[in-house]
Structure prediction request, 260 residues.
Amino acid sequence: MKKRLAGFLILVLAVAATAFGLTCYLSSRKAEDQWTWLRREFRLSDAQYTRILALHEAYQPICADHCNRIMAMQERMAELEKSGAKTSPDYVAAQEEWQAITRECNRATMEHLEKVAKEMDPAEGRRYLDLMVPRVSRRDHRGASEVQ
Amino acid sequence: MSNQDPNLSKVLRSWEVDVPASPRFNAEVWAKIEATREAPLSVAAFLGKRLGIPVRFFRWALPLTACLTLVVAAAAGVSIGALRTNHSLNDRMAAAYVRTIDPLQMTVDRHP
Prediction:
């Protein structure tokens, strides 16, 4: 009787594990890009989706400009580091400028997220911010060398 | 009358009883056997007694419970799998989305 019960328990576990594995496997095969996901996950209507897409398009040049400025500043700091001028006034000035740019980037990114959230239904907007805000980089008080 | 009465023996040999076969004969015999059999589980017997369900119906209780347990196990596996996949998909997609709007992450990606 005990043997049969043990065998049955093993069978139950095997069935549960197979169902779990199959679900994970089949779900991972679903090809979905981030926009399809965003639309589905936050239950966006066509109008909301179009407005959010427009916001994203409008934000891209701002984002690219920030990106270029950050990269330029990082290159300048890296050059100064190579020439051994890490304690020079030039390096300190570059570091301050880098921090100012990163703060500006953070602010712009957060504003963009809030604009997108406002286009969603209130509950979905809150959920969107809860999911996205922790993923935005925060390097306001770090130096360029700490960028990973 | 004697046991050796040839007439009686002759009559007995030629005697045929025409009893119509009962269509539920087998079922009735099994029902009697099941009724005298002990319940397979004490819980089943207890419930059967309390609910007034004949013990013979508990013949199916064990296989039915086993099937239900397997169905529940499969459903649990699917649910947990779907939850886990959805959670990791949200993580992955949210990270990919933020990378398209966060210049700091873009520069990290491009930085050597």
